[in-house]
Amino acid sequence: MLKLIRAGIFRYIHSTAFKVCSALALAVGFIFAHNIYKNVELDESWFFTATIIFASLIAINVGGEISKCAKNKITAGYSKTKIFLSELIVANLAILFFFVLFLLFSFVMNVRLLPHIPLKLALLYIFGFMCISVSLATVFFSITCIIPKKAVSAILCLVLLFSLYYTSDKVDYALEQPEFMQQATIDENGEWFKFEVENPEYIKEPLRSIYTFYSDINPFGQREKYETIIYPYLFDDARLELLRKNTQEQAANPEYLLEKLERNVSESEWEFIHRAPLYALAPVPVFTLAGWLVFRKKEFR
Amino acid sequence: MEYILSAENLSKSYGKFCALSGLSLHLPKGAIYGLVGKNGAGKTTFIRIICGLQAPTSGEYTLYGKKNSEKEIYVSRKRIGAVIETPAIYADMTAEENLREKCLMLGVPSFTEIPEILKLVGLGNTGRKKAGKFSLGMKQRLGIALALAGNPDFIILDEPINGLDPQGIVEIRELILKLNRERGISFLILSHILDELSRIATHYGFIDNGRLVKEIGKNELLGACRKCTEVRVSDTKALARALDALEIEYEIISETSAKIYGEINVSRLVFSLAEENCELISAREKNETLETYFLNLVGGSENA
User: Fold this and answer.
1) How far is A85 from chain B (nearest CA, A)?
2) Is A86:A8 a contact under the CB 8 Å cutoff?
3) Pairing of strands B58-63, B66-67
4) Which of A137, A139, A30 is nearest to A94 (CA)?
5) Residues of A in contact with B87 (CB under 8 A)
6) More confident residue, A260 or B119
7) Inter-chain contact A14–B92, Cβ cutoff 8 Å?
8) What pLDDT, on a 0 to 100 scale, did the predictor assign at position B188?
C-alpha cells in the first residue's frame, strides 16, 4: 500500500487542483494571520473558506481518480480495499499539508503572541483543528466515493458544508438563550417591579443534550468553542487592555464579556479541549465504512 | 500447450442484459491473440473481467495458473499491462510524469526505463507538454507506454490503433511484433480493423453475443482463408484419385464436396474425372479474407 501512497502523493503534487488549493490555503492563512497581527476580531469566514478548499480538492482529485484512473491500479493487481485506504490516506495528508500552509503565516507574523499562549493549549488547539480537518477530509472523500458523478459529489459536499454552518449557527444561538428572562413592570404605587419569566426560546432537556451533542460534533460548533477559548490570547497586551476598557464603559452586560477577555482556561473548557478531538473524529469510522462498502462493490468501466 | 489465460463458461449480466454468456477462451503463452467481434459482442466486458474491473456473474478464469477466486490473482495481475477503451491518463501531467506515477505505483525502483519506453512508442520528444493537450493518437501511445511500464509479460490492448494515422498504425504494429519477438510478451488485442489484426495475430477468437464461436490458430485460419475452388462431385474418392494423378493439393470436406487449392485447368480436371466415372456437379471459386471468414462465422447476411 506504501507504493500506492507514494504514487498518490506524486499525483497530488503534480495536479493543478492541488497547486491552486495550496495557493488558496496560503492566501486564506495570510488573511487570518494578518487579522491577528492587526488585532482585528476574527470571524468564521476563514474557517468556511478553508473547508471549501478541502471539499474542492477532494472532489476534483478523488472524483477524477475514481471515475477514470482507479482502473490502472486494479489492473496492476491492487485490491479495492488497498486502493480505497491509500486514497483516503493521501487525501488526508493533502488536507494536513494545507493546514500547515494555513498556519505558516500565523506563526511567522504573530511570534510576539506565542509567549502569552500556554504551550498545552496551543498544542491541543492545533491538534483539535487537525482532527477537524481529517474528519472533514474523510467525510468529503467518502461522499466522493459513494456518488459516482464528480460534479454531483462536489455540489453535495458544498451543500453539506452550508448545512453544517447554518445548523451550527442556529443550534449555538438556541443553546445560548438564558432559561429565564428579566422583565419589569410599574406597580400601583408607581414603583418599578422586576421579576423573572421563563424564556420560551430556552431549550430544555432532553432536547438540550441532543443540541449540545450536535454542537460538539459539528466542526463549526467546535470552531466556535475553540475560538472562545483562544480569543483573549490572540491580542497583544495593549489591545486586550483597550478591549477591556471599552467593554467596561460601553457594554450592557460587562461582567459576562469581561470574563471572555480573561486569559485563563476554565475547567469545563479544558474538558472540552480534551474531548473535542474524539468528537471531531467520530464521523471518520462511520463515513470510512460507508465509503469502503460502496467502493468495494463498485464496477469500473 | 501452456496457457497464460483460460476462461471457462464466463458469464456477465447487467440486470436482464446478458453481456457474456458462457464464454470460454484459451490464450497460449507468447501468442498475439486477436479477439474479434461486433460492437456489443462482449469483448470489452470480457477484458474488464480479466483485469478485475468487474466481477463475473458466473464461470471462472485462470491467469498464470491462478483462479479468479484465489487471492493470488492479484499477484498474477501485476504481470499484466492493459489499455481498456480510452487510456486512463492524468491530463495535467506530462507523458514522463504519467509514467513516473505508474512506476511508483508498481514499485519500480528507478525511472531509467522511462525515456526508452517513451521513445519506443514515439513520445520521446513531448517534453513539458501536458497529456491533456495530446492528440487522440498521442494519448493512445501514452496508454500503451503506461501498459509497458513495469515490464509486464502480458499486455491487453483494446482497439490499440484507434485514432492513429497510417504511419502510427505501422509503428504500433511493429512495436507489438517487436515486443512479442524480442521480449516474449503475449498480447490480447481487441480490434475492429480485421485487416490490421490479420497482419500480427497468431491466434484468433471470434466472439458473438457474449459467446466465443470459434478459436483458431493463424495457420488454421490461413488454410481456411486460402484461395481455393470448392467443388461438388458425385464421388469424392474418384476425385481424390484424379487430383492425386494431377498432383493438385486438395481437401475432402464430405462425400460429395472438396476444396481444391491453387490454379486448376478445368478441362483437364473434367476429363480426368470422366475417366474415373465421376461427375462434376458444380465449381465455385472462394477467396476468403479474415473479414469474410468472420462474417460467415457470425452470420454474414446480417453483417454484410
Assistant:
1) 14
2) yes
3) antiparallel
4) A137
5) none
6) B119
7) yes
8) 93
Count how many pairs of residues, chain A against chain B, have C-beta atoms within 8 Å.
79
Residue range B68-78, pLDDT digits in tens: 888 888 888 88
Q: Which CATH number, 3.30.70.100, 3.40.190.10, 3.40.50.261, 3.30.70.260, labels domain B227-287?
A: 3.30.70.100
Cell 493543478: give the residue.
A16
Structure confidence by residue, pLDDT tens digits, A38-89: 766 666 677 777 777 777 777 677 767 776 667 888 888 888 888 888 988 9
Instruction: Calculate how close chain A gets to B105, using CA atoms only, in Å.
Output: 5
Distance, CA of B204 to CA of B31 (rounded, Å) = 10
For A82, nearest residue in chain B (alpha carbons): B74
Tell me the pLDDT tens digit for each residue of B212-248: 888 888 877 777 777 788 899 998 998 898 888 888 8
The CATH number that domain B3-222 falls under is: 3.40.50.300
Distance of CA B120 to the CA centre of its chain: 22
Question: How many angstroms from the chain centroid is the CA of residue B142?
Answer: 21
Grid coordinates in use for A227?
475560538
A6, A74, A301 ranked by CB distance to B104: nearest:
A6
Map residue B228 onto helix, strand or coil. strand
Please give the pLDDT value at position B301. 42
Nearest by CB to residue A14, choosing from B74, B97, B107, is B97
- What are the residue boundaries of the structural domains of chain B, listed by start? 3-222, 227-287
CA terminus-to-terminus distance, chain A:
23
ipTM computed for the complex: 0.73
Q: Which of residues 55-84 of A touch B (CB under 8 A)?
A: 68-69, 71-79
